[in-house]
Amino acid sequence: MSYLEYNTKRMPAGLAKVLYLNWPLVALLIAVAAYGFVMLYSIAGGNAALWAEPQIRRFAAGLAIMFIIAFVPIWFWRSVAGVAYAATIVLLLGVEFFGTVGMGAKRWLVIGPLRMQPSELAKVTTIMALAAYYDLLDMKRISRPFWVLLAALIAFIPAALVLRQPDLGTAMLILLGGGVVIFAAGVHWGYFAGLIGSGAALVTAVLQSRGTEWQILKDYQYRRIDSFLDPTLDPLGAGYHVNQSMIALGSGGWSGRGFMEGTQARLNFLPEKHTDFIFTTVAEEFGFVGASSLLILYMLVIGVCLLTAFNTTNRFAALVTLGVAGTFFLYFAVNMAMVMGLAPVVGVPLPLVSYGGSAMIVLMVGFGLVQSAHIHRARLPS
Amino acid sequence: MKRTEREKAISQRTISRRALLLGGVKLGVAGTLFWRLRDMQLNQSEQFHLLAEENRINLRLLPPVRGLILDRNGVLLAGNEQNYRVVMKRDDAGDIDLVLARLAQLIPLSEDDIARAHHDMMRNRPFVPVTVAERLSWDEISRVAANAPALPGVTPEMGLSRHYPLQEDTAHVVGYVGPVSEADLAALEAPDPVLMIPRFQIGKSGVERMHEDHLRGRAGSQRVEVNAVGRVMRELDRVEGTPGGNLHLTIDAKLQNYALERLHGHSAAAVVMDVESGEILALASAPSFDANLFVRGISSSDFSGLLDNEYRPLVNKTVQGLYPPGSTFKMVTALAALEDGATDGQERVFCPGHMDISGHRFHCWRRGGHGRVNMTSALSESCDVYFYEMAQRCGIDKINAMSTRLGLGVRYDLPITSVSAGLNPSREWKQRNRNEAWRIGDTVNASIGQGFVLTSPLQLAVMTARLATNKAVLPRLLRDPSEQAEQVAADLDLRPEWLRLIRRGMADTVNDARGTAYSSRVVADGQAMAGKTGTSQVFSITRAEREAGIRRQEDLPWNRRNHALFVNYAPMDNPRVAVAVVVEHGGGGSSAAAPIGRDITLAALNGGSVPPLAAYPAPQRNRIRAEQLELEERLRPAEAMRISRA
Question: Can you tell me the ipTM of this complex?
Answer without folding.
Answer: 0.88
